[in-house]
Amino acid sequence: MGGNLKGGRSTQGVVKIGNTVRRPAKESSLFVSEMLTFLEEKGCPYSQRFIGFDEQGREVYEYIEGVVQTEVGEMTIAQLEEIMRILRTIHDTTAELTENGDVLCHHDASPCNIVFRNGVPVALIDWDKCSFGKRWEDIIFSMWSSINGAPPNSEIIFE
Question: Which structural domain, as residue segments, surrounds residue 90?
């Protein structure tokens, strides 16, 4: 029996069935599946494992045990440092895929897409915005969403 998942910001149509997560396929599904398979083959432990597509055409991923926050917000320095280590590992692992220095960027590495165990970040989920880019794109977004506490797409006001 499956159930809707809680946590994150966008879980519409996402269900947990056994030890899997199923989500509606998107335009990015093929690219995401290729990149997650590459990360798995390289032994990168910080991403979801892509299993395939089910009979309903949904993406199927291995469920990662832990807690996912429902909002962006303040993180401890230790948590932020661990997120940066995770991003660096993913970036270093995928640097060989391009010749121009671009790496695979998650492009939404906020606390809402990070699985925590005992308060420690252990994996990134929800890769549908991933694409090749510059390392700083992931780093800046992740830092902003982890310490700012402002909702995505909101205006930051400095006084």
Answer: 2-147
Sorted by sequence, the CB contacts under 8 Å of residue 17 that are 6+ apart come out as: 1, 2
Q: Which tokens hold the place of 107?
A: 């492009």
Helix (H, G, I), strand (E, B) or coil at 35: helix
**pLDDT tens figures, 35-58:** 999 999 999 999 999 999 999 999
CATH code at position 12: 1.10.510
- Alpha carbons 21 and 2: distance in angstroms, whole number: 9
The total number of residues shown for the chain amounts to 159
- pTM of the predicted structure, to 2 decimals: 0.84
Distances in Å between the Cα of 83 and the Cα atoms of 11, 60, 97, 143 are: 22, 24, 22, 9
What CA–CA distance (Å, rounded) separates 148 from 129? 21
- Burial of residue 28 (CB within 10 Å: 0-12, 13-18, 19+) is middle
Identify the DSSP state of 42.
T
